Amino acid sequence: MAKITLDNLAHSYYPNPKSEDDFALKELNHVWADGEAYALLGSSGCGKSTLLNIISGLLHPSQGRILFDGVDVTNASTADRNIAQVFQFPVVYDTMTVRANLAFPLKNRGASPQYIAQRVQEIGAMIGMEAELDKRARGLTADAKQKISLGRGMVREDVNALLFDEPLTVIDPHMKWELRTQLKSLHHEFGHTMIYVTHDQTEALTFADKVVVMYDGRVVQIGTPEELFNKPEHTFVGYFIGSPGMNVIPATVSGTTATVHGTQVQLDQGYGDLSGKVELGIRPEFVTLTETDGLPVQVRRVEDVGRHKIVRAELFGKEINILAEEGQSISPDMNRIAFDPSRINVYVNDWLKTGKAA
After folding, report:
1. CA nearest 244: which of 205, 197, 284?
2. What PROSITE patterns has UniProt attached to this entry (predicted)?
3. How far is CA 310 from CA 51, 129, 132, 285, 334, in A?
C-alpha cells in the first residue's frame, strides 16, 4: 500500500499548451492517505481517467510529480510502481481458462503453486465464478469477462494501489451491487489504497471512504459522502451529488439576509455585503411547500417515487425541486416555499462562502 502525493501535477494533450484552457488536468496538489479507498467522481471529460492513467504510469504528466510513500515515481514504469489496474472494458486472455487468467499475475511474480491455488480459489468465490474456473474465457459473456478482469486486479495482496477505471460498466445492476460490496470487503480486509473512477454517484458514495469530485479538470472537493451532501464546496458538487441535486438560486446577500427577487430569506450566519455571482444552495430535502409565507412558486408536476414525492416547481422562471414525504398531501394552495436557514449554503462565483455565527 502507498500514500500517493500529487505534486504540482497538470497535463495537456497539446504539445505546447498556451493557456489553462489547454489543460485536460489543471494543477493539482493533494496527498491521498495510505490504505484509504477513494472514488474519482465527475461527468465525462472532467479529467478522471487522465489522472488515473498518470497515477498508474500509462500517461506521463506535462508537469509535476507523482510520489508513492515519498518516492518520486513520475518516470517509473507501471510494473515498477507495483499497481494493479482494471479497465472499463474486459481485458482477458481468451485462450486461457478462468483459473489461468486469475493466476497469471501471481505466476509472473513467482508465487508458490500452493499460494496461487489458494488465492485463485478465494478470488473465484469472491467474483462468483467458482463453477467456471476451468472454462476457457473465450465463450463467456462480457460481464463474466469483466469479473475475471476484476478478479485479476484483486488477486495480488502486495500491490501499492488498486486502480479501477469504471470497471462495472458492462455488469448487470444486481451484480454491480454485489461486486461493490466485495470490493469494499476486500479493502477492509487488506487495507489496499484503492482509487475507483466513476461517473455514478451511487457507486462512488457506497464504495469510497473519500470521494474526489472533479469538474473541468480540477478537483473541486474531497470529502466523505456526508460532507459532500451537507457542505458542497462548489455548486457543481451540490448539483452532481444528490437526486435531485441541490437547488441553486441567484440572490443578493447582506449580513444575515438574502434577497431573492425582492423577497427576503433569513440566513443563520452573517456574510457581510457580498459581490460577484452570489447564489444560495439549498437541498430539496430542506425546502418546504407552504400556503402562506415564503417565496412564490408554481408547481408544475408531482412525481411519486415510492419513498417520497419530488415536487417540480418554478421559482421566478427557474426550476426548483422540493422533496415531500410520501404521505404528504399537496394542495393547489401550496404555492410558496420556505427554507431551513441552517441548511442554506451561500456561494460566490460558484465557491462556498463561510459565514460567521449570527
Report:
1. 284
2. ABC_TRANSPORTER_2
3. 36, 41, 45, 10, 14
The region, left, alpha or beta by phi > 0 then psi within -120 to 50, assigned to residue 255 is: left
* 249 beta partners: 280
The DSSP result for 132-192, as a single string, is GTTSBGGGS-HHHHHHHHHHHHHS-SS-SEEEEESTTTTS-HHHHHHHHHHHHHHHHHH--
* pLDDT one-digit tens code per residue, 249-258: 999 999 999 9
CATH number belonging to the domain at 4-236, selected among 3.40.50.2000, 3.60.20.10, 3.40.50.300, 3.40.30.10:
3.40.50.300
Enumerate the CATH 2.40.50.140 domain ranges in the chain, comma separated: 243-357
Residues contacting 350, CB < 8 A, separation 6+: 234, 235, 236, 277, 279
Cell numbers given for 248: 441553486
Residue found under cell 467456471: 132
Query: What tens digit of pLDDT does each residue of 238-290 get?
Result: 999 998 999 999 999 999 999 999 999 999 999 988 989 999 999 999 999 99
Distance of CA 7 to the CA centre of its chain: 21
Where is pLDDT greater, at 296 or 327? 296
What SS3 state is found at 69? coil
Instruction: Cell 412564490: give the residue.
Output: 296
Residues 213, 35: Cα–Cα separation, whole Å? 19
Q: For residues 185 and 189, what is the distance between their CA atoms, to the nearest angstrom?
A: 6
- Write out the H or E segment, with its range, that includes residue 5: strand 4-11
Q: How far apart are CA 294 and CA 339, in angstroms?
A: 8
* The three cell numbers locating residue 117: 491455488
Q: Does domain 243-357 have CATH number 2.40.50.140?
A: yes
Please, what is the Cα angle at 20 between 18 and 23, to 5 degrees? 90
Chain region(s) in the chain for CATH 3.40.50.300: 4-236
What residues have CB less than 8 Å from 90, skipping those under 6 apart?
Answer: 142, 145, 146, 148, 149, 170
Could you give the maximum distance between any two Cα atoms of the chain, in Å?
75
